[in-house]
């Protein structure tokens, strides 16, 4: 009888799997066992699906209807889909400059899913209970921060910025203890991988050459397959990650994104933005803007992000040294050579980004100085980052300077004249210039006050503001009647925005 039950439930599971469309192949769980711990999500009292990303589900080749049916249990970790091989990944990291051993303390990698397009993606549950890496934490997450990650990661995706994605959020039916009691939740995160700079720091600190080497080959194969044949895999990986991070951080700078906690454990080798904690988008422009309540010295301020990325990449380089060359001096020289390319790569991406934001179609010497001139004025005038670029686009279209720029003053008008002269020299039509600018300047970003409003309502059980916000965030470059109320900066004179780590 017992056997029959097992067989029945197994076939029911395969059936459900087939209905949902999961195709699992868990390659990370085949790496040396020092890199992870096998651990199942800890079941929760009363799981309920809060939100399911049906478009993402469909892109992954999953059936949204079947997922909705099974979703509460699967996304809470109460039921393991067949073929899942849950693990918590080990990693270390430099947190605010200090080295610590970490690991997934409140997450498990459920499985790797192969999409119909052949992409391999991690399906991770975040907030799924304690693991061997939890230290003093409870392994849980609160609904507000998980929905916050959902909103911001999906907004980043719509902005065209590489990022992990959010497939679902469930409430657990349990309260978690923070400064107050909060509803517990689990986020299902989808990522190219969760391999971090800190993963390599961990493998290197183990002193296990084979594990470090296996991790390197795995990462190269997975994220940079065209380099998999390189003789010096570690050096190839380092160079490729440097390129992707230079591009990623330039993308952040172009939309005014402040990650907030760029510890080395929060930097992914895939080049995706990862670990949305105390992140936020600039309102008024100032390069030293910090939102996170714990970043007291501004280490992760908007304007510091490019340098911090380079610092983190240096930690990656250190972790790879034993593989780069057995002669340490040679290894250091090679790594330094690779790191030296970062600044130039970053600046090229940032300059190209800002050139597009200003409608400068062909490159000309002095373009970066022109962009800097604008940023200098913006900082002094304390104008809204996003609205300024939207108003500049409109000024090209209408020939009038108004909106966020109407109070520009003399310094702005002097800059504007320089910009107009520059635009005239490139012999492109107004329409071409404006189209370039519209593609580079979002009208809609997840405005802090809008995000807070949606989260507050959701925690009270009203999901309407969340859905409305998510809908307008899907098309950030278009001006529509529906997104009009979501464009404006918060009214001036408000208390400056503060974010908190969601732990
Ligand atoms: P984060 O600030 O989310 O990047 O997390 C930093 C580290 O703390 C990671 O290793 C997390 O797994 C761990 N962590 C964060 N919150 C918790 C928690 N509630 N319980 C256990 N570990 C946690
Ligand atoms: Mg983290």
Describe the model.
- The structure is a single chain.
- By secondary structure, the protein is an alpha+beta fold.
- 46% of the residues lie in helices and 13% in strands.
- It has 16 helices and 12 strands.
- Helix 4 (143-158) packs across helix 15 (448-459), helix 5 packs parallel to helix 8 (305-324) and helix 12 (385-398) packs antiparallel against helix 14 (430-440).
- Residues 1-8 have low confidence and may be disordered.
- It binds adenosine monophosphate (AMP) and magnesium ion.
- Residues 102-106, 134, 137-140, 266, 275, 277, 501, 503 line the site of adenosine monophosphate.
Shape: globular
Helix count equals 16
Low-confidence stretches: 1-8
One letter per element, helices H and strands E, the order comes to: HEEHHEEEEEEHEEHHHEEHHHHHHHHH
User: Share of helix among residues?
Assistant: 40-55%
Cα end-to-end separation: 45 Å
User: Largest beta sheet, briefly?
Assistant: 6 strands, antiparallel
What's the average pLDDT?
95
Structural class: alpha+beta
Approximate strand percentage: 5-15%
Query: Structurally, how many domains make up the residues?
Result: 4
What is the number of E strands? Answer: 12
User: Rg, please?
Assistant: 24 Å
Structure summarized in a few sentences:
By secondary structure, the protein is an alpha+beta fold. It has helices at 2-20, 54-59, 64-76, 143-158, 197-206, 209-223, 233-255, 305-324, 328-339, 341-357, 367-381, 385-398, 409-425, 430-440, 448-459, 464-473; strands spanning 36-38, 48-52, 87-89, 92-95, 98-101, 107-114, 120-126, 141-142, 165-177, 181-191, 257-258, 280-281. It folds into 4 domains: 7-194, no CATH class; 198-356, no CATH class; 359-440, no CATH class; 448-486, no CATH class.
């Amino acid at each position: 009888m017992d056997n029959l039950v097992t067989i029945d439930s197994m076939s029911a599971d395969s059936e459900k799997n087939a209905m949902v469309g999961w195709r699992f192949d868990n390659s990370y769980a085949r790496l040396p066992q020092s890199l992870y711990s096998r651990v199942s999500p800890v079941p929760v009292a009363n799981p309920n699906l809060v939100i399911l990303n049906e478009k993402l589900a469909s892109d992954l080749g999953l059936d949204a209807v079947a997922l909705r049916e099974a979703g509460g249990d699967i996304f809470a970790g109460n039921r393991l889909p067949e073929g899942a091989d849950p693990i918590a990944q080990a990693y270390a990291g430099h947190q605010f400059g200090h080295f610590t051993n970490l690991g997934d303390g409140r997450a498990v990698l459920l499985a790797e899913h192969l999409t119909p397009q052949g992409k391999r993606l991690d399906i991770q549950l975040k907030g799924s209970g304690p693991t061997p890496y939890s230290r003093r934490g409870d392994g849980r997450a609160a609904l507000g921060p998980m929905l916050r990650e959902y909103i911001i990661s999906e907004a980043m995706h719509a902005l065209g910025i590489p990022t992990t994605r959010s497939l679902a959020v469930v409430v657990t039916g349990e309260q978690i203890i923070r400064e107050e009691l909060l509803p517990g939740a689990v986020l299902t995160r989808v990522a190219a991988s969760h391999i971090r700079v800190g993963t390599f720091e961990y493998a290197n600190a183990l002193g296990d050459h084979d594990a470090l080497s296996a991790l390197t080959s795995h990462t190269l194969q997975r994220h940079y397959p065209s380099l998999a044949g390189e003789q010096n895999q570690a050096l190839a990986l380092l160079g490729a990650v440097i390129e992707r991070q230079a591009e990623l951080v330039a993308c952040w700078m172009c939309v005014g994104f402040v990650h907030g906690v760029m510890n080395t454990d929060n930097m992914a080798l895939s080049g995706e933005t990862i670990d949305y904690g105390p992140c936020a988008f600039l309102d008024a422009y100032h390069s030293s803007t910090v939102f996170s309540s714990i970043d007291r010295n501004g280490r992760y301020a908007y304007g510091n992000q490019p340098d911090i990325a380079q610092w983190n990449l240096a930690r990656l380089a250190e972790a790879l040294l034993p593989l780069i060359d057995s002669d340490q001096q040679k290894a250091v020289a090679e790594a330094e050579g690779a790191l030296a390319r970062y600044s130039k790569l970053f600046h090229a991406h940032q300059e190209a980004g800002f050139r597009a934001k200003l409608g400068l179609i062909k490159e000309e010497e002095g373009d970066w100085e022109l962009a800097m001139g604008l940023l200098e004025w913006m900082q002094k005038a304390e104008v809204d980052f996003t609205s300024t670029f939207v108003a500049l686009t409109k000024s090209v279209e209408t020939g009038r300077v108004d909106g966020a720029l109407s109070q520009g003053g003399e310094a702005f008008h002097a800059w504007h004249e320089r910009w107009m002269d520059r635009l005239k020299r490139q012999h492109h039509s107004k329409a071409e210039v404006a189209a370039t600018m519209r593609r580079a300047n979002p009208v809609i970003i997840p405005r802090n006050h809008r995000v807070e409003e949606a989260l507050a309502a959701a925690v009270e059980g009203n999901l309407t503001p969340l859905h409305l916000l998510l809908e307008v965030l899907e098309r950030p470059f278009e001006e529509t009647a529906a997104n009009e109320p979501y464009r404006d900066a918060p009214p001036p004179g408000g208390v400056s925005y503060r974010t908190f780590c969601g732990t």
